[in-house]
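User: structure tokens for this one?
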Amino acid sequence: MGQGGFLTIYNATQYDWKKTYQHSYQMNAWDFPNLVEFDEGVGKKPGDDAGDVDFELQGAPAGHATFRLAVSFRNLWARFATFAVTLAPNTPIPVGGQVELGWRHDGTVVFILAGQYPNLHVLKNAN
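Assistant:
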């Protein structure tokens, strides 16, 4: 058993999100987005735990707007390969940038994507 927690995601955009990819390595649970549990058993290297899930914003004017939610050793990230966002209240995150969402053992990390392309905003609960 390893540390576990939850990720709650909110789509506050006008676009449907289509999951296009999901992968995990050495995770006890990556039942995205319901449960995240790292594998920290005997003989396991905790830093190797990882998982990814990619989403595409369906109908975004750019044609191919994607982002990734990722987990690595006790941390969650939102990565924006094809569009920029603003981290609330007003921190610009460029194309190719990422937002650290943090980790809460036996708790919930919240990720919200809001707005209308190209003015998208990320909100999260405090680390």
